[in-house]
Specification:
410 residues; alpha+beta; Ubiquitin-like (UB roll); 4 domains; 6-stranded mixed β-barrel; 38% helix; elongated; hydrolase; UBA-like_sf; DNA damage-inducible protein 1; transport
Length: 410
């Protein structure tokens, strides 16, 4: 028999069903047609609610009859739980959380499309959930404003110079966005965090996590690390000086030779000792060349002696947390390398600054003109603390624009 169903939004459907079909099966058919979950459907025939277990013929439904689908109270409750405040946060975050957690299909979609929101819903931090909802709301507002601006530009006066500049900027930004989308699709790993290259070594019998840096001119050891390895007694202070490059640090001297163990083999190594806390031990280009090392990123190993010894680079989980914290610290207080080695990773973030390192030689300090304090004040107004601003201006040789770029990039 044919049955006519009118939905809550006045949509009319005609279904071909068996008279002995159950109401529950009818709801299942309607779920396919209307996308309204079976649990949220309420069907009425002749003003009475139809129970799931009843058969259509038993309650008097005949060919051509009309059945009404009305919103269920559960559906209205569900809508109340999803209500948001004007700032995008949930009116009842606990109820929203329970609503999502109770719908496995919805959670699966959320985990795939918005993992950050899904994790916040599954977590216990209500404030984090509210912050993510507010953030999403702001993103939607920004997108809406952008679309409105683009629409306004379409109808702008073609002879208006300012409007043409905005159109040019919008076209340029569209190209950037398309380039970003292509990178997300074809090169997503470029947006991940790059783990620096560390290997296990022994210096004078003491195990260390050595940072392998082919962009550093010399091998570096900190004063504390040298003392821990029993090498500070060999420090030649005739090589004292100051290294200025990406930052500034005092050179305490050199240790001319000491044994290091890589894998199962021992090698002689010389060190420049710096009074710096943000790098424990750095295996630089001088020793990489001397011992014919190969950085093999395909097999993720460091080969020494032309390949006679191979040691694996450490995974992120194997690198101690204090070393990872030092990497973050080095963004604002980076190691000055000079002849002690200029880090390749630091060079990517900051402009070149004159390098100088000589026994008992003076430091080369970036000039601080009469407008230095004005530059400091201007950058502090952007929200950065004064110490970081002064450090950035020194690193960038007093260039205000480069210092601002460094602070925003850090």
């Amino acid at each position: 028999m044919k049955l006519t169903v009118m939905t809550a939004d006045e949509q009319i459907l005609t279904l071909d069903v068996d008279p002995d079909e159950s109401v529950e099966n009818l709801k299942a058919l309607l779920e396919v047609e209307t996308q309204v979950p079976l649990q949220q459907q309420l069907l009425h025939f002749n003003g009475k609610e139809m129970n799931n277990a009843e058969k259509l013929s038993a309650i008097g439904v005949h060919d051509g009859d009309l059945v009404m689908m009305v919103p269920s109270s559960n559906n209205r409750t569900s809508q109340d739980q999803m209500r948001l405040n004007p700032d995008g946060s949930a009116v009842n975050p606990q109820a929203l959380q329970q609503h999502f957690r109770g719908d496995s299909q919805l959670m699966a979609q959320l985990l795939q499309n918005d993992p950050s929101l899904a994790q916040a819903i599954l977590g216990d931090d209500i404030n984090a959930l509210q912050n993510i909802l507010r953030s999403h709301h702001q993103q939607r507002l920004q997108l809406k404003r952008k679309q409105e601006e683009e629409l306004a530009l379409m109808y702008a006066d073609p002879f208006d110079v300012e409007a043409q500049k905005k159109i040019e900027a919008a076209i340029r930004q569209k190209g950037i966005d398309e380039n970003w989308e292509a990178a997300i699709e074809h090169n997503p790993e470029a947006f991940g965090r790059v783990v620096m290259l560390y290997v296990d070594m022994e210096v004078n019998g003491v195990p260390l996590k050595a940072f392998v840096d082919s962009g550093a001119q010399s091998t570096i050891i900190s004063k504390d690390c040298a003392e821990r390895c029993g090498l500070l007694r060999l420090l030649d202070q005739r090589y004292r000086g100051v290294a200025i490059g990406v930052g500034q640090s005092e050179i305490l001297g050199r240790i001319h030779v000491a044994p290091i163990k890589i894998g199962h083999a021992f090698y002689p190594c010389s060190f420049t000792v710096l009074d710096a806390a943000n790098m424990e031990f750095l295996f630089g280009l001088d020793m990489l060349r001397k011992h014919q090392c190969i950085i093999d990123l395909k097999d993720n190993v460091l080969r020494v002696g032309g390949g006679e010894v191979s040691v694996p680079f450490l995974h992120e989980k194997d690198i101690p947390s204090h070393i990872r914290d030092e990497e973050k610290l080095s963004k604002l207080e980076p190691l000055s390398k000079g002849t002690a080695g200029e880090s390749s990773k630091a060079r990517e973030k900051t402009p070149d600054v004159p390098l100088r390192s000589s026994p008992a030689g003076p430091a080369v300090v970036p000039p601080q003109g009469g407008d230095f304090e004005a530059k400091v004040t201007k950058l502090v107004e952007l929200g950065f603390d004064r110490a970081s601003v002064i450090q950035a201006l020194k690193l960038c040789n007093g260039n205000e624009d480069q210092a601002a770029g460094f602070l925003f990039g850090g």
